[in-house]
Amino acid sequence: MPPKKSKLCNRSKEARRKRLERAHQSEEQIAARNTTQRIRISESRIQKSKRQRDERLRQNISRNSAAREHHIATFRVRELDRQQTRLFSQTRCWIYSIEWQKRGLPHAYILIWLGVKIISAEIPDPLIDQELFDIVTSHMIHGPCGIFNMTSPCMENGKCEKRFPKQYTNDTVTDIDGYPLYRRRNFENGGHIFTMRMSNSTNQVEIDNQWVVPYSRLLSKTYKAHINVEFSIP
User: Fold this and answer.
1) What is the 3 state secondary structure string of 1-46?
2) φ/ψ of residue 185, rounded to 5
3) How many CB atoms lie within 10 A of CB 64?
4) Where is the composition biased (Basic residues) (predicted)?
Protein backbone atom coordinates (compact mmCIF):
# COMPACT_ATOMS: atom_id res chain seq x y z
CA MET A 1 0.00 0.00 0.00
CA PRO A 2 1.57 3.36 -1.04
CA PRO A 3 2.26 5.89 1.72
CA LYS A 4 -0.18 8.66 2.29
CA LYS A 5 0.25 12.00 0.57
CA SER A 6 1.03 13.77 3.85
CA LYS A 7 3.94 11.39 4.49
CA LEU A 8 5.28 12.00 0.98
CA CYS A 9 5.12 15.76 1.57
CA ASN A 10 6.91 15.40 4.89
CA ARG A 11 9.64 13.30 3.31
CA SER A 12 10.04 15.85 0.52
CA LYS A 13 10.29 18.70 3.00
CA GLU A 14 12.82 16.77 5.08
CA ALA A 15 14.96 16.01 2.01
CA ARG A 16 14.84 19.68 0.97
CA ARG A 17 15.84 20.78 4.47
CA LYS A 18 18.83 18.43 4.45
CA ARG A 19 19.93 19.72 1.03
CA LEU A 20 19.76 23.30 2.30
CA GLU A 21 21.78 22.35 5.40
CA ARG A 22 24.46 20.69 3.27
CA ALA A 23 24.61 23.73 0.98
CA HIS A 24 24.87 26.07 3.99
CA GLN A 25 27.66 23.96 5.51
CA SER A 26 29.51 24.01 2.19
CA GLU A 27 29.30 27.81 2.08
CA GLU A 28 30.65 28.02 5.65
CA GLN A 29 33.50 25.65 4.81
CA ILE A 30 34.40 27.69 1.72
CA ALA A 31 34.28 30.92 3.76
CA ALA A 32 36.42 29.36 6.49
CA ARG A 33 38.95 28.14 3.92
CA ASN A 34 39.14 31.58 2.30
CA THR A 35 39.51 33.21 5.72
CA THR A 36 42.32 30.79 6.59
CA GLN A 37 44.13 31.66 3.36
CA ARG A 38 43.81 35.39 4.06
CA ILE A 39 45.03 34.84 7.63
CA ARG A 40 48.09 32.92 6.44
CA ILE A 41 48.97 35.72 4.03
CA SER A 42 48.37 38.38 6.70
CA GLU A 43 50.36 36.42 9.30
CA SER A 44 53.35 36.32 6.97
CA ARG A 45 52.98 40.06 6.41
CA ILE A 46 52.78 40.63 10.16
CA GLN A 47 55.87 38.54 10.86
CA LYS A 48 57.83 40.36 8.16
CA SER A 49 56.57 43.72 9.42
CA LYS A 50 57.43 42.75 13.02
CA ARG A 51 61.03 41.99 12.04
CA GLN A 52 61.26 45.33 10.25
CA ARG A 53 59.68 47.13 13.21
CA ASP A 54 62.09 45.57 15.69
CA GLU A 55 65.02 46.57 13.48
CA ARG A 56 63.76 50.17 13.17
CA LEU A 57 63.32 50.40 16.93
CA ARG A 58 66.83 49.11 17.59
CA GLN A 59 68.22 51.74 15.25
CA ASN A 60 66.41 54.61 17.00
CA ILE A 61 66.81 53.87 20.70
CA SER A 62 69.87 53.47 22.88
CA ARG A 63 71.39 50.01 23.16
CA ASN A 64 70.76 49.52 26.88
CA SER A 65 67.11 50.66 26.93
CA ALA A 66 63.81 48.93 26.14
CA ALA A 67 61.21 49.95 23.56
CA ARG A 68 58.59 50.54 26.28
CA GLU A 69 60.76 53.40 27.55
CA HIS A 70 60.51 55.23 24.21
CA HIS A 71 56.81 55.81 23.59
CA ILE A 72 57.13 58.28 20.72
CA ALA A 73 59.56 56.13 18.76
CA THR A 74 57.42 53.06 19.38
CA PHE A 75 54.25 54.68 18.08
CA ARG A 76 55.94 56.10 15.03
CA VAL A 77 57.15 52.63 14.12
CA ARG A 78 53.75 51.10 14.89
CA GLU A 79 52.09 53.64 12.61
CA LEU A 80 54.39 52.59 9.78
CA ASP A 81 53.59 48.98 10.60
CA ARG A 82 49.83 49.63 10.48
CA GLN A 83 50.03 51.43 7.14
CA GLN A 84 52.26 48.87 5.46
CA THR A 85 50.69 45.64 6.78
CA ARG A 86 47.13 46.26 5.47
CA LEU A 87 45.45 43.43 7.32
CA PHE A 88 42.06 44.09 5.73
CA SER A 89 43.26 45.00 2.23
CA GLN A 90 43.00 48.66 1.23
CA THR A 91 41.39 50.94 3.82
CA ARG A 92 39.39 53.99 2.76
CA CYS A 93 40.54 56.17 5.64
CA TRP A 94 41.26 56.03 9.36
CA ILE A 95 41.54 58.08 12.52
CA TYR A 96 42.97 57.15 15.91
CA SER A 97 43.59 58.56 19.36
CA ILE A 98 46.31 57.53 21.82
CA GLU A 99 45.55 57.69 25.53
CA TRP A 100 47.70 56.87 28.53
CA GLN A 101 46.43 54.49 31.17
CA LYS A 102 47.09 54.93 34.88
CA ARG A 103 49.77 52.25 34.69
CA GLY A 104 51.65 54.40 32.18
CA LEU A 105 50.89 52.21 29.19
CA PRO A 106 49.54 53.60 25.90
CA HIS A 107 46.00 52.69 24.78
CA ALA A 108 44.81 53.18 21.20
CA TYR A 109 41.29 53.82 19.87
CA ILE A 110 41.27 53.28 16.12
CA LEU A 111 38.42 53.99 13.68
CA ILE A 112 38.87 52.49 10.21
CA TRP A 113 36.66 52.79 7.13
CA LEU A 114 36.65 49.46 5.27
CA GLY A 115 34.98 48.09 2.18
CA VAL A 116 34.72 44.49 3.42
CA LYS A 117 32.73 42.69 6.12
CA ILE A 118 35.04 41.48 8.88
CA ILE A 119 32.93 41.37 12.07
CA SER A 120 31.36 38.31 13.67
CA ALA A 121 29.42 37.94 16.91
CA GLU A 122 28.89 34.19 16.89
CA ILE A 123 30.62 31.15 18.34
CA PRO A 124 32.54 29.45 15.51
CA ASP A 125 31.78 25.88 14.50
CA PRO A 126 34.52 23.76 16.15
CA LEU A 127 34.20 21.17 13.37
CA ILE A 128 35.17 23.81 10.79
CA ASP A 129 37.70 25.90 12.75
CA GLN A 130 38.75 24.47 16.11
CA GLU A 131 41.48 27.08 16.60
CA LEU A 132 39.10 30.02 16.20
CA PHE A 133 36.55 28.27 18.43
CA ASP A 134 39.14 27.95 21.21
CA ILE A 135 40.20 31.60 20.86
CA VAL A 136 36.66 33.00 20.87
CA THR A 137 35.48 30.86 23.79
CA SER A 138 38.59 31.83 25.79
CA HIS A 139 38.86 35.55 25.00
CA MET A 140 35.63 36.89 23.46
CA ILE A 141 32.90 35.88 25.91
CA HIS A 142 31.34 38.57 28.10
CA GLY A 143 30.83 37.55 31.71
CA PRO A 144 28.49 35.88 31.86
CA CYS A 145 26.66 38.27 34.14
CA GLY A 146 23.00 38.80 35.04
CA ILE A 147 21.25 35.70 36.33
CA PHE A 148 24.57 33.84 36.24
CA ASN A 149 26.46 36.45 38.28
CA MET A 150 24.63 39.44 39.74
CA THR A 151 27.85 40.73 41.36
CA SER A 152 29.70 41.08 38.05
CA PRO A 153 31.50 44.47 37.70
CA CYS A 154 29.34 45.32 34.66
CA MET A 155 26.09 45.09 36.63
CA GLU A 156 24.44 48.39 37.58
CA ASN A 157 20.96 48.60 39.12
CA GLY A 158 20.37 44.97 38.26
CA LYS A 159 21.26 45.37 34.57
CA CYS A 160 24.41 44.89 32.51
CA GLU A 161 25.75 48.27 31.42
CA LYS A 162 27.15 46.55 28.29
CA ARG A 163 23.64 45.36 27.35
CA PHE A 164 24.39 41.65 27.68
CA PRO A 165 22.92 39.18 26.97
CA LYS A 166 22.23 40.41 23.44
CA GLN A 167 19.08 39.50 21.57
CA TYR A 168 18.95 36.77 18.94
CA THR A 169 18.80 37.81 15.30
CA ASN A 170 19.36 35.90 12.06
CA ASP A 171 20.78 38.90 10.19
CA THR A 172 22.87 41.95 11.03
CA VAL A 173 20.68 45.06 11.14
CA THR A 174 20.82 48.60 12.52
CA ASP A 175 18.73 49.33 15.60
CA ILE A 176 16.49 52.40 15.82
CA ASP A 177 19.04 54.11 18.08
CA GLY A 178 21.83 53.59 15.52
CA TYR A 179 23.53 50.63 17.20
CA PRO A 180 24.25 47.58 15.03
CA LEU A 181 22.51 44.34 15.96
CA TYR A 182 24.94 41.67 14.81
CA ARG A 183 23.76 38.28 13.63
CA ARG A 184 23.40 36.08 16.70
CA ARG A 185 21.53 32.92 15.81
CA ASN A 186 20.04 30.70 18.47
CA PHE A 187 20.76 26.98 18.53
CA GLU A 188 17.60 26.12 16.60
CA ASN A 189 18.64 28.43 13.72
CA GLY A 190 22.23 27.24 13.37
CA GLY A 191 24.00 28.86 16.33
CA HIS A 192 26.50 27.00 18.49
CA ILE A 193 26.77 26.58 22.26
CA PHE A 194 29.46 25.44 24.67
CA THR A 195 29.81 24.86 28.39
CA MET A 196 32.09 26.95 30.58
CA ARG A 197 32.88 27.12 34.28
CA MET A 198 32.00 30.30 36.13
CA SER A 199 35.03 32.20 37.41
CA ASN A 200 33.45 32.81 40.82
CA SER A 201 32.23 29.24 41.40
CA THR A 202 32.45 25.67 40.18
CA ASN A 203 29.10 25.88 38.37
CA GLN A 204 28.97 24.95 34.69
CA VAL A 205 26.77 27.10 32.43
CA GLU A 206 25.81 26.87 28.77
CA ILE A 207 26.94 29.85 26.69
CA ASP A 208 25.50 30.77 23.30
CA ASN A 209 25.80 33.67 20.85
CA GLN A 210 24.07 36.11 23.22
CA TRP A 211 27.34 36.45 25.16
CA VAL A 212 29.84 36.84 22.31
CA VAL A 213 31.78 40.11 22.08
CA PRO A 214 32.04 41.16 18.38
CA TYR A 215 35.38 40.20 16.91
CA SER A 216 37.36 39.86 13.70
CA ARG A 217 38.31 36.33 12.67
CA LEU A 218 41.54 37.62 11.19
CA LEU A 219 42.66 39.63 14.22
CA SER A 220 41.61 36.94 16.69
CA LYS A 221 43.54 34.19 14.91
CA THR A 222 46.54 36.43 14.37
CA TYR A 223 46.95 37.82 17.90
CA LYS A 224 45.04 35.20 19.95
CA ALA A 225 43.79 37.84 22.38
CA HIS A 226 40.72 39.89 23.32
CA ILE A 227 40.20 42.37 20.47
CA ASN A 228 36.72 43.89 20.30
CA VAL A 229 35.82 45.03 16.76
CA GLU A 230 32.67 47.14 16.29
CA PHE A 231 30.81 48.64 13.35
CA SER A 232 30.28 52.41 13.54
CA ILE A 233 27.36 54.11 11.80
CA PRO A 234 28.51 57.24 9.86
Assistant:
1) CCCCHHHHHHHHHHHHHHHHHHHHHHHHHHHHHHHHHHHHHHHHHH
2) -75, 145
3) 5
4) 1-21
